[in-house]
Specification:
Chain lengths: 526, 526
């Protein structure tokens, strides 16, 4: 049912919220996941893999919310072959316009032996039952033979044939451990097409990991061998070295369209913004030299107007920065801009904000505009994203005082509003001002959180830039992340820490009685 | 002369200090370049392209110093086809054990027309003269037809034949704009071998850019077509989206050795450290999901002990973290460790430190050990690297006081020692504590520097982690970078800013009377 009529159409399956969100240290709350999903819809991806519903109640709720609220793309939920997984996936995605269940089981002997501790016969039986069970719920079912590239191709073909017999409409071939080389991966797909002629009637998909730096090249080799769905993630995030970068894959097909003839329906002008949003909310930086979305990916963005570029753009640029949405960084508001101008600017950026949310945004905007001469589109994005992070039932930073000096130890005092509405205070003398304020927050809230990661980036360049701080802390053995934005790095850090603490407390609450059996969350995935 | 007898041997040509150093915002001083070159020698690369000597006096001096002091690898200097370029390159590398001149000229019509504004005939003449002139100096001469992948293959073959006729010993085929696809690039090389049979007697080299995310895959396709030298850079830095990542390329050949049979002499255990050193000194972050050297590239490094990994490592890992040197991050020293223990630990890390340098290192070590319970190998690396940044004739931070609060604007006062040895003071009330201290430094030194980029990372995890701040500022239109390390983020930021200011002042001094004619530094390169 999902196979497009146009043989040149490549479907983009985004797994930022599933494989990407499984990366260590990433811990998105439901509002953040929804915001990313909305942006993915705006970007025009064909499928959003929204999560792995059985893995945790939080994941289930997020997939359900995305299925109910995000229009356009197919919404997929991941499931092992277990009945309870498929039931959970279906219950999470059932309200989507176009729901999909994606089920998987390993076909490599190394996984069957060591991970599943079972037999090839059992794997076939599980695959058959799972696809049949999923098809009883929904027409759109995807099946993945995990670790296929290290599996016996004949056995993998048998399992794929079973999935097809039971009605799977998409067959995905994962290079789970990022081991394949392009020619090898293409040859594996070609051989599967020979062994399973029925593959020509469904969508064949590729899912490649970047452990050897070949995820995009392998995905591309798969497409050249006939695959028409690519599983990828924004900024290439995902397990270990991550998945194929969506933006690289899309721009490869776009830039070389004249030679390849392949198309996607991605709106490339949304790529830069999507990249920034995902980087900001996950706390995963994009290196300056990252293809397509890195700060220096375009010569003229990096401030170097090379001789050649000045004479003729195409001498040194094969893509135009405006194509990926990098030129739109120009909406400028100042301190005299009013509420309506802000609302209009936010709407241009795709954020529909009104009522109390507009009031809050306007208040923050005015604070920033007092400090900065010009507020750019990127500043606004950061502010709106920042506001998304505050929600009910969380701790919030009320006030702080910090003294830092080379001549005495730094000291911090803070006031934090608790979820119950009271203001608690704490103070601490630490190794540095950030260390002091984080410990002061611990003292105020009575929590014993430990800092694991701390990261700062400037949103825009210049002396009065907004600083964006990402924090990962550990609370009772569970990691939790938070971000904060301000022109003041200490304030941004404290906001980030308080939010991470709120996330940690919320996470701990979710891990109680009706959480899934231990180990489910750690289940390896394609 | 440089062609190895073993047909399976792939030479690693590192261009971190040339193409990498041309990235915007990177501005390494000579000490830093030397330290990177020493580490590249320890890593075991075959060739270090140390710089582009004609481009600036600073570049010339750095290449000369590396040629004189770094043992092991061939030291190459880049040169356009102009006589003065080749003379400069030779004068810079002549003292190396094994010097190389690398000269280039574009063969694509788009470059010949718009960039060079000349004719194909002239390009042939320039290539002939340049290689001949370089060969008069040295036996080891590399020639690159720039933008070859967008050039007419027959014309490129003609120019390559001329270079061979004049005695070039390495022919490099650059994908200058990162436009090629793997099969296409491999086919281009195969066609060149057909047109120029003499290529079989020299080393053929690949130089690929990552604009479409294919630099490693294209380089690999080139190797499969017969190339035996790969030009790459640590962390994949370089113009725009950068070059092929050295670490990915090396680990691809290493991990798939059983299938490919290709070898390098790189000591893979030095990869992680080299990556950290380059990231630290350039201020270019490595994203967590970067293959091989990213923080999460290995499952067990990222803190996720997946079910499968516990049962059998190879179920989810194709490489072992110890192979790339990631396991060495063990605790080495505590606050009671003495001078000898520090010296020994530094020696284990490859830093030979004695006399005054050891005293300084020990003093910094004690300061840190007072604040941190355990000082790890990575902390020591950061400290030593930090010390490298201080040199004579620079500004240094003497003391500072900062107050930050949510209830009044942040205020900073600083004392800075000038190159002349006097201490100047300044104060400022700014938008944030970092903003305030940076402006206070401007006020103290009387400089009008403008902040362009500000970046913070934790060296190790934990509440008492060392913070590492990178700053890029602009002084009189020229960008300059600086880094600082401390457990106190404000102090690290102020150190970084003062160093960037020193670099900026030094740069400005170098840009005076006997600087090369305007435009030389902006010359596009392969």
């Amino acid at each position: 049912m999902t196979k497009p009529d146009d043989p040149h159409r490549v479907l983009i399956f985004d797994t930022t919220l599933r494989d990407g969100e499984q990366s260590p240290g990433i811990s998105l709350n439901m509002t953040e996941k929804l915001e990313i999903a909305q942006q993915l819809a705006r970007l025009g991806v064909d499928v959003i893999e929204a999560g792995f519903p059985i893995s945790s109640p939080g994941d289930f709720e997020a997939v359900e919310a995305i299925a109910r609220q995000v229009q356009g793309p197919i919404i997929a939920g991941l499931a092992r072959t277990h009945t309870q997984d498929i039931d959970a996936a279906w219950n999470a995605v059932r309200d989507a316009e176009r729901p999909r269940i994606h089920t998987f089981i390993s076909t490599s002997d190394i996984h069957i032996q060591h991970q599943l501790q079972t037999t090839r016969e059992d794997v076939k039986g599980q695959a058959r039952a799972a696809v049949a069970h999923a098809r009883a719920y929904v027409e759109d079912v995807e099946f993945s033979p995990m670790d296929a590239t290290r599996a016996d191709v004949d056995f993998t073909a048998e399992v794929v044939q079973i999935a097809l017999d039971e009605g799977a409409t998409t067959i995905n071939i994962p290079d789970t451990v990022g081991y394949a080389m392009p020619q090898e991966y293409g040859a594996f797909l070609t051989r599967l097409y020979e062994l399973v002629p029925g593959l020509r009637d469904v969508v064949v998909s590729v899912h490649c990991h970047d452990d050897l730096g070949l995820a995009v090249a392998n995905s591309f080799a798969g497409v050249q061998a006939g695959a028409r769905q690519v599983e990828c993630a924004i900024n290439g995030i995902g397990e270990r070295a991550g998945n194929a970068s969506l933006e690289e894959l899309v721009m490869l097909l776009h830039t070389r369209h004249a030679d390849l003839g392949l198309t996607t329906v991605v709106n490339t002008r949304e790529l830069a913004r999507t990249s920034r949003l995902v980087s900001r909310l996950t706390g995963y930086v994009v290196q300056p030299n990252k293809a397509v979305v890195g700060r220096n990916a375009f010569a003229h963005e990096s401030g170097i107007h090379q001789d050649g570029v000045l004479k003729e753009r195409t001498t040194y640029e094969i893509m135009d920065a405006t194509t990926v949405g990098l030129a739109a960084n120009s909406i400028v508001l100042g301190k005299h801009s009013g509420r309506h101008a802000l609302q209009q600017a936010l709407e241009d950026l795709g954020f529909r904000v009104s009522g109390q949310a507009l009031n809050t945004a306007f208040k923050r905007f005015k604070e920033i505009a007092d400090k900065k001469k010009q507020v750019t589109a990127m500043d606004l994005e950061a502010l709106v994203t920042d506001e998304l992070r505050d929600d009910l039932g969380a701790y919030t930073l009320e006030w702080f005082d910090v003294e830092a000096s080379s001549r005495r130890p730094p000291h911090a005092t803070v006031g934090v509003r608790t979820p119950e509405g009271t203001i608690v205070e704490g103070s601490f003398t630490g190794d540095g001002p950030v260390d002091a304020i984080f410990h002061a927050i611990n003292a105020a809230t009575g929590k014993d959180a430990k800092l694991r990661e701390f990261h700062v980036d400037a949103v825009t360049s210049g002396q009065d830039a907004l600083g964006e701080v990402s924090v990962v802390l550990e609370l009772g053995g569970v990691p939790a992340a938070g971000q904060g934005v301000s022109t003041d790095i200490i304030e941004a850090g404290a906001r980030a820490y308080v939010r991470a603490l709120s996330n940690g407390v919320r996470r701990a609450a979710l891990q109680t009685p009706d959480a899934p059996p231990a180990g489910v969350e750690l289940t390896p995935t394609p």
